[in-house]
Structures are given as C-alpha cells and as structure tokens.
C-alpha cells in the first residue's frame, strides 16, 4: 500500500498558523511548554506529577457511563487503571457531529491511539491511555447536524435547543434509515448498520448514543470515550467558575497573550469574554453576562442573579454551568491526568493562546500534538492516473491546470496555429510596402484585412481546441472526478467526507490502515492509496 507525503505549505489548504506550528516555527516557541516530539513525553510525565487529579472520581464516573452499554472486562481494566498514579492520558476531543461527521473526527482518535501505542511499547514505568472527550455541551446544532456520504448531504432536522449532547434521539430514526439505504446490504454495510443500531436503539441522549457508537467503532483499539457533562466533574470546576465570574482572570490573561501572538505575526483565534460561561436551562445553553451594577444575567432568557446569588448557584448546581471554548481546555485538564492534547490546526492555534492562562489558574499545560491529516484515494483511481501518465502529485494542481496538462500530453499538435499566424506578419509587411509606393491610403486597409484574418484563424484555433477537448471529454471528466474526491469543493477531503464511505469498502481493516500509517509527530499530509 503506497503512501505519499506532502508538506502542508505545498497544498494551499492549511492556515499560516497551522503551517507554522507543523514546521516548528521559532516564533511560536514562547507559547507552548513542550515541543511535540515522542521523546519529550517522559519529560511531560515528570512535570505532570506535580498536578494530581481525583483519580477515584474519574474512574468511578467513567465506569458509570460505560455500564450503560459495555460489558467488556478489558475496557473496565483500562478504566480502573486510571486510578494508578503511573497512568496518564492523551486526550483528543470533538463535538458530537452527526454520526461522527467529517473524517478528521476519526483521524483525531487514531492519532491519539497511535501516540499512546508507541509510548506504551517503548517503556514500562508508565502507561498512556488515549481518551476521546465528547464535547456534547456545545449548542451550535447547525454545525453538528449533518454529514456527507458518497456526495450526499444528510441532515438531522430537529433543533431542540440547548446542548446537542442532551438532545432526544427519537427523531434520529429518519436520518438512520436514510444512511442504511445508502450503505446497502454488503457484509461491511451490515456490520456498520449493526453498530449504529446498537448505539442508537434507545440511548438516553444523543451524546450517550455517540459515546456508545464511537466505542463500537474504535473501542477495540484502546480508546476510552468520556462525556464531560457530569455534575461530579463540574464540582471540581467550582473555583474556576467562581474566578471567571468574579475576577475574570481568563479574559485578562488570554487577551494579553493574543496581543503577543499578533505581535509575533500570527492570527488571533477564539474571542475571549469577561465571562466565559453558559447557563443550562431545559431548552437552552444561555450565555452569562454582567451588568454595570455587578449583577448577572443570561442573554436570551433574562435569568438574573446578584453577585452572591450566582456564586451560591455555582456551589449548589455546578452542572448548570457550561464552559465555553476559553475554559473547556481548563476543564478537561483539571479532571484528567493528561500529558498531551491532540488537535487540528485550528484547535492548536487557540491552545497556543492559553499557556499563561493555565499558569494563572494553577492547571497543567500539556504537550500540543497536531493530529494526522490523511487523504485517501482508491487503488482503482490511482491506476487510472498511472494509465494517463499522471502522479498523485499532479492532483495538487488546480482543476484547470490538470486539464491543460492532460491536453498537452494527449492533444494534437496541429491545433496550435500560432506559428502559422505568426507567418502572416512578414507577408503583411511586404504587401504594405508595395501598396505604400503606389497608394499610401490603402495601407490601413491592408492592416485591417490582416487583423481580421488573424482573428478568424484564432477563432478557428479555439474551435479546434474545443473539439479536441470534447474528444477527450470522458477521460477529462474522470480526471476531474478523481481530483474532486481528493479535494471536494476544492477543500480537504478530511473536512467533508464521512468515514462510512470507506468503511463499507474495507470494513474493520480501514481503521487498521489508518493506524498503520498514523504518526502525528510527522506533520505532513499523508496520501494513502487504499
């Protein structure tokens, strides 16, 4: 199985911040603690030991979550092992996008598993447990309610309000039926269908259904899936919540870091507010703000508290408070004994704005690892490219450039009339010279006739090229289609396609292929012929 590697900056699809971190740009060194290298993980272990977490709580809550759908004793060994002070985690996280959404949802998990697998093989004093944090508290339903399967967009049309992870799943049946119809009845399709049915038969919520589904897909590779929407976890966040409401530490610190990052020539990321908390109601996840008198209120529903009342609410019902993107990293690092966070380019960019925030709040700041980016191309499509004399590198060309290259390779020479047209110039000069000696008034007319003749010949050339292009239309259309699979909508495949398109072709072997080629410390785009 062939794999080709491309530097991010050669593709034209990655942000400048992403490229800078992938390339180890010196201008970013002040904004992270540990350089992203496998050999540095033991250094991270030593630093992390100064930041203990409540391991019995962690193990107890995760075990309770898994007892709803899992009976595998090996999984419970992993959960129980979190109580061991020599066990640490490597975290990746994502919103519960519809049935995993785009491919990079899967790539994140595979990347975390690969780092842990390699770490655990190279030493025996410590264990690294990969964890996928399901960000079910997010409320942007339109960002999460769709997936792309074989070019068809499937949408879950049931806005319920509030955290998507808390959504009722009863209306998901229509979406699942549509997916089943598309998948068909092959052996791999039947296996995937059974996993979907097990996960979404009667889950208490969409987030819990997704937790079960990710476990069905990838649990056998060692990942633990954790839902952070838990009151017992939130109780550990009470001091952070109180600080954010009263002292606004994150707002002050992150703003300062963003200014430093901008001065270093990099783009600012997430918008930081004085208060970075939402409040849960039955139907909403409502942002909290403070008025000029020091009273607090929710933006949409107008719930109000005095300063003392909101702090009392935090201590009594911490589960009603939800951190935004500024506080979410703090939350997961406070709960889990984490060494490294695996994320995409956008995530790494906003994590780079947080080092001082973590220091000020007394929370451990982990190693930041840029997840693997893959492109997938079928063996059949790769063979078609070879037959035409094209390489995978050629697919980086813009579509019109790819077509022009094809026509240069297979077009007929006679469609280029420029040499013949150029021969008109000396002929025109000879005729004009003869005419000028007899009747100079006719020189302009001669020039106009030659100009018209040139235009007519260029029009003929254009028609010939069009006819030539049509004669190769079948291959050109196929060539465009292959490129569009790699760059759908002229963007990255991993940001559009769902994993199921590949799973029904390769089954469980699909994840093994990804795991085999994964190496997030090699920050290049990996194109796999599968």
Short description:
The protein is 49% helix and 13% strand. It has 530 residues and is α/β, with parallel strands linked by helices.
Structure commentary:
There is one protein chain. Helix 8 packs across helix 23 and helix 12 runs antiparallel to helix 16. Helix 5 links the parallel strand 2 (87-94) and strand 3 (127-134). The chain has a five-stranded parallel sheet. The chain has a five-stranded antiparallel sheet with strand order 10-9-8-7-11. Strands 1-15-14 form a three-stranded mixed sheet. Helix content is 49%, strand content 13%. It is built from 24 helices and 15 strands. By secondary structure, it is of the alpha/beta class.
Separate helix tally: 24
Content-based structural category: alpha/beta
Question: How much β-strand is present in the residues?
Answer: 5-15%
Mind summarizing the main beta sheet?
5 strands, parallel
Cα distance, first to last residue? Answer: 7 Å
Number of strands: 15
Average predicted confidence as pLDDT:
93
Sheet with most strands: strand arrangement: 6-3-2-12-13
**Unreliable residue stretches:** none
Helix content: 40-55%
What Rg, in angstroms, do the CA atoms define?
30 Å
């Amino acid at each position: 199985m062939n794999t080709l590697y491309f530097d991010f900056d050669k593709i034209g699809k990655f942000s400048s911040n992403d490229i800078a971190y992938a390339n180890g740009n010196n201008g970013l060194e002040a904004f992270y603690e540990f350089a992203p290298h496998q050999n540095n993980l033991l250094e991270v272990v030593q630093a992390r030991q100064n930041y203990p977490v409540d391991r019995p709580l962690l193990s107890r809550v995760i075990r309770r979550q898994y007892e709803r759908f899992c009976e595998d004793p090996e999984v419970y060994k992993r959960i129980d092992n979190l109580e061991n002070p020599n066990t640490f985690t490597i975290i990746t996280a994502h919103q519960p996008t519809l049935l995993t959404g785009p491919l990079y949802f899967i790539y994140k998990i595979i990347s975390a598993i690969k780092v842990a697998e390699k770490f655990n093989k190279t030493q025996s004093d410590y264990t690294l447990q990969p964890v996928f944090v399901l960000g079910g508290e997010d409320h942007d339903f339109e960002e999460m309610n769709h997936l792309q399967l074989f070019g068809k967009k499937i949408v879950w049309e049931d806005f319920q309000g509030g955290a998507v992870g808390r959504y009722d799943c009863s209306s998901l049946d229509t979406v699942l039926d549509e997916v089943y119809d598309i998948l068909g009845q092959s052996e791999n399709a039947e296996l995937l269908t059974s996993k979907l049915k097990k996960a979404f038969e009667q889950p208490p919520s969409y987030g819990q259904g997704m937790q079960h589904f990710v476990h069905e897909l990838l649990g056998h590779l060692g990942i633990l899936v954790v839902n952070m929407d838990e009151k017992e976890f939130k109780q550990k966040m009470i001091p952070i919540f109180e600080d954010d409401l009263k002292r606004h530490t994150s707002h002050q610190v992150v703003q300062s870091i963003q200014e430093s990052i901008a001065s270093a020539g990099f783009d600012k990321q997430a918008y930081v507010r004085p208060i970075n908390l939402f409040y849960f109601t039955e139907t909403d996840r409502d942002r909290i703000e403070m008025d000029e008198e020091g009273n607090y209120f929710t933006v949409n529903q107008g719930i109000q508290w005095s300063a003392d009342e909101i702090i009392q609410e935090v201590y009594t019902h911490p589960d009603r408070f939800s951190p935004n993107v500024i506080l979410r990293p703090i939350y997961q690092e406070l709960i889990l004994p984490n060494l490294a966070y695996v994320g995409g380019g956008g995530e790494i960019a906003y994590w780079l704005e947080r080092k001082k925030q973590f220091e000020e709040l007394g929370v451990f700041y982990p190693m930041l690892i840029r997840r693997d980016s893959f492109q997938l191309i079928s063996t059949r499509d790769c063979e078609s490219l070879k037959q035409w004399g094209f390489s995978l590198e050629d697919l980086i060309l813009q579509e019109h450039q790819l077509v022009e290259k094809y026509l240069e390779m297979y077009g007929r020479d006679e469609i280029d009339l420029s040499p013949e047209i150029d021969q008109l110039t000396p002929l025109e000069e000879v005729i004009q010279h003869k005419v000028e000696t007899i009747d100079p008034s006719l020189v302009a007319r001669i020039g106009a006739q030659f100009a018209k003749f040139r235009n007519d010949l260029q029009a003929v050339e254009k028609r010939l090229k069009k006819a030539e292009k049509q004669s190769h239309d079948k291959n050109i259309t196929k060539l465009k289609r292959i490129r569009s699979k790699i760059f759908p909508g002229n963007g990255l495949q991993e940001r559009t396609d769902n994993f199921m398109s590949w799973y029904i072709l390769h089954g469980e072997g699909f994840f093994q292929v990804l795991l085999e080629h994964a190496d997030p410390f090699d920050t290049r785009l990996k194109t796999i012929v599968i």
